[in-house]
């Protein structure tokens, strides 16, 4: 009976929320964006503007958050936040204060006369993030002046990253009815061949009623709504005003082990701005494969009667609302000049075309060529069977057959190898692993290859010894496909680029399926 009642109330709340979302979004979405921010700090002074920012200090205990709620290793100090030459610099140091071995800085706009807290809008910061294992920079938002405990009151992370994974950035919302029921929705984006720590980038969110979207350099990469939650009633963000925070944590739950040899490290912030309404941005990929087509469009546009003038570095132009660029082997800037009832503006995206890679090292052709020594296989592996359907993609007479173990969520094909001399090439996208696959598994089935140091990695110490992992997906059923495995995570910063001596192939990880896979041409491609 209670379950039935709860289900009915949950459904009612969801319907009411949906109705409110449509009504609020319709009103909110009619507002033209303002060129003037309602909050801004350009950091043009000589010190932190304490009319805009509260400088939080200590280990968090005075705020009731020892370790700042994340087992962080630093004591925040006002001296670690310096403004000069138009930039705020937060420095993480090896410096003992009390029981803490590191110092850094943390700022927030809460209850400042020139700061503030808001519901809805666009919030952005142009920042250069740190590298070095153990660094954890964040630009984020928490609810102001509420007695509702975290995470029920919510959290919006506009930007997070770690030093050991500086090629990745994350956008996240945290929620849940209680700490024990803490949940989050997160999307990561990665950059190649350089990392986000190599330069300044603009990290932003557009927060409109019942919708939050994330951008890097004005390009949309994620959107979350109540429909993404198991229980839409957990979407409580509209109930509160949120303030902004900037900090550089050391270690902690996400930061991981600290590499003292890389200290000091800095988070540099060129500006922070907040607007009352979303600003138009672009959609489309900024990292593309060579000789492919990508479509770009304008999002969060509220003006009417728009005209467009698109251009691409290959000479293509268009006056349509969207623009498909046929990329070759060279990247460049895609730009659009837009005029509508709200005004005129220009948007652009700097696009990198991945290098053309060709087969360099044969790891295993399941005939004569082999640079792998298989050590652990949890499914049924037959290394020489007849090709089920020779053709253009794969014409080999002999291939391998793998029947996945339906009793293993993580079904492993583990092999030792000496062929990965420097794993940094794979992280940068200058080399890649490829595999020919034939299967009846559903289109979109994921496959992972993990690079490991077998002398460190064990079944019980994840992520220790795991350098990085790479992901590919099936694109058809019952036909050969050549799958490129792209960077999915840089796992253990303590595992060096020259320490990889083991590859682990996982087919349909986290599932309990027993599909059959024919595989061949397990190879390294290089530029």
Keywords:
7% helix; mainly beta; eleven-stranded antiparallel beta sheet; 527 residues; 45% strand; 3 helices
Question: TL;DR?
Answer:
The protein is mainly beta. The chain is 7% helix and 45% strand. It is built from 3 helices and 36 strands.
Which helices and strands appear, and what pairs or packs with what?
Elements: H1 2-28, E1 39-41, E2 54-56, E3 74-76, E4 81-84, E5 87-97, E6 100-104, E7 106-108, E8 121-128, E9 135-143, E10 155-160, E11 168-175, E12 183-190, E13 201-208, E14 211-216, E15 219-224, E16 242-250, H2 252-255, E17 265-275, E18 281-283, E19 287-288, E20 293-299, E21 307-311, E22 317-318, E23 322-326, E24 332-340, E25 343-353, E26 358-364, E27 373-377, E28 380-386, E29 398-403, E30 412-416, H3 424-427, E31 431-439, E32 446-452, E33 466-473, E34 481-490, E35 502-507, E36 516-526
Parallel strand pairs: 3-6, 19-25
Antiparallel strand pairs: 1-17, 2-7, 4-5, 5-6, 5-17, 7-16, 8-13, 8-17, 9-10, 9-16, 10-11, 11-12, 13-14, 14-15, 18-20, 20-23, 21-22, 21-24, 24-25, 26-36, 27-30, 28-29, 29-36, 30-35, 31-34, 31-36, 32-33, 32-35, 33-34
């Amino acid at each position: 009976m209670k379950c039935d009642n709860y289900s009915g109330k949950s459904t009612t709340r969801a319907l009411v929320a949906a109705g409110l979302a449509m009504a609020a979004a319709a009103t909110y979405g009619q507002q033209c964006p303002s060129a003037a921010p309602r909050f801004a700090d350009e950091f043009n002074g000589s010190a932190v503007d304490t009319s805009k920012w509260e400088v939080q200090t200590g280990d968090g205990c005075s705020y009731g958050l020892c370790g700042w709620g994340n087992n962080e290793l630093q004591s925040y100090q006002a001296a670690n936040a310096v403004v000069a030459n138009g930039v705020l610099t937060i420095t993480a140091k090896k410096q003992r204060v009390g029981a803490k071995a590191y110092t850094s800085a943390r700022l927030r706009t809460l209850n400042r006369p020139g700061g503030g807290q808001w519901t809805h809008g666009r919030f952005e910061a142009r920042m250069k993030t740190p590298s070095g294992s153990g660094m954890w920079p964040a630009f984020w938002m928490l609810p102001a002046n509420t007695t509702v405990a975290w995470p029920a009151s919510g959290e919006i992370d506009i930007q997070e990253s770690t030093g050991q994974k500086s090629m990745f950035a994350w956008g996240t919302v945290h929620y849940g009815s209680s700490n024990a029921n803490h949940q989050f929705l997160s999307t990561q984006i990665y950059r190649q061949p350089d990392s986000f720590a190599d330069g300044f980038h603009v990290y932003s969110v557009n927060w409109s009623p019942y919708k939050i979207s994330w951008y890097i350099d004005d390009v949309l990469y994620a959107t979350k709504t109540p429909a993404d939650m198991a229980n839409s009633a957990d979407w409580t963000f509209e109930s509160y005003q949120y303030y902004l925070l900037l900090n550089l944590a050391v270690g902690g739950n996400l930061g991981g082990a600290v590499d003292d040899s890389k200290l000091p490290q800095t988070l540099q912030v060129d500006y922070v701005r907040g607007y009352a309404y979303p600003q138009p941005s672009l959609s489309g990929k900024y990292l593309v494969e060579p000789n492919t087509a990508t479509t770009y469009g304008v999002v969060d546009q509220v003006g009417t009667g728009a005209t467009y003038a698109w251009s691409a570095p290959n000479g293509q132009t268009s006056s349509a609302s969207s623009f498909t660029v046929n990329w070759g082997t060279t990247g460049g800037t895609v730009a659009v000049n837009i005029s509508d009832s709200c005004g005129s503006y220009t948007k652009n995206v700097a696009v990198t075309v991945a290098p053309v890679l060709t087969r360099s090292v044969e790891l295993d052709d399941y005939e004569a060529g082999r640079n792998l020594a298989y050590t652990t296989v949890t499914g049924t592996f037959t290394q020489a069977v007849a090709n089920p359907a020779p053709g253009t993609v794969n014409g080999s007479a002999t291939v391998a057959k793998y029947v996945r173990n339906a009793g293993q969520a993580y079904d492993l094909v583990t092999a030792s190898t000496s062929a990965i001399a420097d794993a940094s090439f794979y992280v940068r996208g200058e080399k890649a692993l490829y595999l020919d696959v034939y299967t009846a598994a559903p289109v979109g089935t994921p496959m992972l290859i993990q690079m490991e140091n077998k002398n460190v990695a064990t079944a019980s110490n994840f992520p220790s010894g795991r350098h990085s992992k790479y992901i590919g997906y099936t694109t058809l059923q019952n036909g050969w496909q050549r799958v490129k495995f792209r960077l999915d995570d840089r796992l253990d910063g303590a595992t060096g680029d020259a320490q990889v001596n083991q590859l682990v192939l996982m087919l349909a990880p986290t599932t309990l399926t027993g599909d059959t896979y024919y595989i061949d041409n397990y190879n390294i491609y290089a530029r």
